[in-house]
Write a structure and sequence with these properties.
InterPro entries: SAM-dependent_MTases_sf. It comes from Streptomyces rutgersensis. It is built from seven helices and nine strands; from the N terminus they run βαββαβααβββββααα. The protein has about 240 residues and is α/β, with parallel strands linked by helices. Helix 1 packs across helix 7 and helix 2 runs parallel beside helix 4.
Length: about 240
């Protein structure tokens, strides 16, 4: 996929982006490559996170930044709140097995606080029933990756990006499904067993080399996604400033 052409910026200072629910930094790395400095926040320790990291509850940290005026140091916010309430895998498994488990919806609370900041923001969620606008939908095939990994993005705070055309998939995801093994050009970067990807396969397929923790890889956004989004966001900001 062709990356948006960056607009030349005269200032040398890189804008600062806040990365909430950051996990190991897949999204952060893409934004950094696009031109942002990044600070990540996650409730769990993330020693593999490659940028400035704050351990804490993401919504509490964001609330404190708003209350103290610390949010003013940031030019934009990315948030990937846990998606168990609306994730297609969770919803499908609960329905098929009659579990009907309940999960806290953090998406709505996150959006409410992000709207207060007045900053441009991105909320990311996998396919499913999460309550977000699907302003942008990206797929690994758009970036010639070894995963499909569809992700939906709500773009808030007064900015927009064009939706790239979806490329047809080149084949199935490798692994067992309904008792049938299929080979294919993509690996399943989630779970374990059943032909799921090994840690080295996930690293290669998503372009993530700085962590070898399976849980972090299975939750990660490929950096190529947010490299594209971050470049589009910077272009939008520069056009407004001009």
């Amino acid at each position: 996929m062709t990356q948006p052409t960056p607009i030349r910026r005269e200032a040398t200072r890189r804008p600062h982006l806040l990365d909430l629910f950051c996990c190991a930094g897949g999204a952060a790395t893409g934004y950094h490559r696009a031109g942002f400095d990044v600070t990540g926040v996650d409730i769990a320790p993330r020693p593999n996170y490659p940028f400035t990291f704050v351990q804490g509850d993401a919504l509490s940290v964001l609330s404190d930044l708003i209350a103290t005026g610390g949010i003013d140091q940031f030019a934009a916010v990315h948030a990937s709140p846990p998606c168990q309430a609306g994730c297609a895998l969770t919803v499908g498994t609960n329905a098929s097995r009659g579990w009907g488990g309940t999960h806290v919806d953090l998406v709505t609370a996150t959006r409410t606080l992000l709207d207060v900041t007045g900053l441009p923001y991105v909320i990311e969620q996998p396919n499913g029933r999460a309550p977000i606008r699907r302003d942008l939908r990206l797929c690994g095939e758009l970036f010639d990756l070894g995963v499909i990994r569809h992700r939906n993005f709500e773009l808030g705070g007064g900015w927009a990006a064009p939706q790239p055309a979806h490329r047809p998939h080149r084949g199935p995801v490798r692994g067992w499904r309904h008792g049938v093994y299929r080979d294919g050009p993509y690996v399943a970067a989630y779970g374990a067993g059943g032909g799921k990807a090994t840690v080295p396969e996930m690293q290669q397929a998503m372009g993530i080399t700085w962590t070898d923790v399976r849980e972090e890889l299975t939750e990660a956004i490929p950096p190529a996604y947010t490299h594209w989004i971050g470049t589009a966001l910077l272009n939008t900001q520069m056009e407004v400033a001009a």
